[in-house]
Amino acid sequence: MPKSPSMPKxxxxxxxxxxxxxxxxxxxxxxxxxGHTAAFVNGNMFAGxxxxxxxxxxxxxxxxxxxxxAGAAPFAPMQNRPMKEYVQLPSSWLTELSTASVxxxxxxxxxxxxx
Length: 115
Fold this sequence. Notes:
The chain has 115 residues and is an alpha+beta fold. Helix content is 26%, strand content 25%.
């Protein structure tokens, strides 16, 4: 039987940084998802962490714009199985909090915040 791919371990530093990127909004809840940290609004995940990476749910056409930035990539937790609406944010953004907040997590919340 083939060995299943290993999942990266949660990174406490990334999880702490991730929480600082989230919008201050009473509708946002943060909870664990598969051992990592994820943010939800109205029950829908809009951003999260995966090991040392931060990902955000981004709608069209903003997704194409974000993917055109060096370091951004489609989020694929398993090889050849991308989650179409999610983008892995450039790691360079994680050192520039204002860029990551505006470019990633806040974009992701907009499409889920109906109501």
